[in-house]
Amino acid sequence: MFEITFSNLIILFSFASSVFYFGFLIWIANGIENGKKELKSAKQQQINRFISIITVFRNEEKNLKNLIDSILSLEYPREDFEIIFVDDNSSDNSVEVIHKKCSDLQYTIIENDKKLMQSFKKVAITKAVLQAKGEIIAITDADSILPAEWLKIANESFSEKVDFISGLVTFDSDRNDFFSQAQKLEFAGLILTGGGLIGNNFPIICSGANIFFRQSAFQQVDGYSGNLHLTSGDDEFLMQKIAKLRDGNILFNWAENSVVRTNQNNNLSEFMQQRKRWASKGLFYNSKIVLLLFGLFLFYFSLFVLGISAFFVKSNAIAFLLIFSFKMIFEYNVLLHGKNLLFDSKTLNKLVFVEFLQIPYIIFASISGTFGNFIWKERKLKR
Predict the structure, then answer these.
(1) Dihedral, CA atoms, 290, 291, 296, 301, nearest 10 degrees?
(2) Is residue 66 part of a domain?
(3) What CATH number is given to the structural domain containing 160?
(4) Residue 29 maps to a domain
(5) Tens digit of pLDDT for each residue in 30-89?
């Protein structure tokens, strides 16, 4: 007769949550395939729309040089785009760099409010959108490097029904140390998950280093109103609000020539601060999203508890290895969509180690991000 013990309850709960998680991963993989088909149907030949590129910077003197060099190399008529830089209270020579390198471009520099206590980037983007001349708004980070066809591909993808496009982002690093490669793989998983969710018409996450939206859609949803009290979420909350305008108006750009490269974190402390900031808005999504995220958290939490108990109970060790193995298989199936696009085979070889480290880090980042503070752009902030 089966005896109900605490150990057995841990196993049962872990298996139950794993069914949910593995189903989620299958759903994501299907969403990626759906999204690729949607991108092909959205592509069309058309005239060049005027696009306003917006980037917010704070002490990005070195990074802005690379960003502007990539803008100068864009394969899009210069008379059809502008760049709006928003200075978020820099104290270095960022502004001088912009003036020096952008002499052949249409560009504007505006200053962000100095007395803000939070929502720095949302306020900055809003100010830029209000001055933008473009029908389409493109957002990227100051430490990004843009591919030559970035604007061209996005312009072609804005069919009449599309209001928002999220794109591929990877870390720009040739370093082969474990920390760099692990970051690249973990970040790729987030980007691919975001693409899969959009492909399933359930947009949740995207990267502010590579997004496009119609200025009219931004005005229709009243920009960031309703979430200005949160420091993070300038990309995701906006996407979710625009998604409510009409069905299927969010597109993910899977084109291999549209991958934006951005800087990775230099150390573990920076990495955790970034993940805490991302997690800080988790409870402020709509109820369906919160429920989904809570289910994912329960899977990782149950796997963590099961892993700890595995040191004391043999049956729990077997159960942990079984669930962990299936986790790796299902996640590998999702990650394959990013191979040679967001990372190479050498990076993928780090999967087993990343899988183990992912379990405690997700739990820590989720809890500390929800209830704690974080540091961003040399500022200590609350969520």
Answers:
(1) 90
(2) yes
(3) 3.90.550.10
(4) no
(5) 999 999 988 877 776 678 999 999 999 999 999 999 999 999 999 999 999 999 999 988
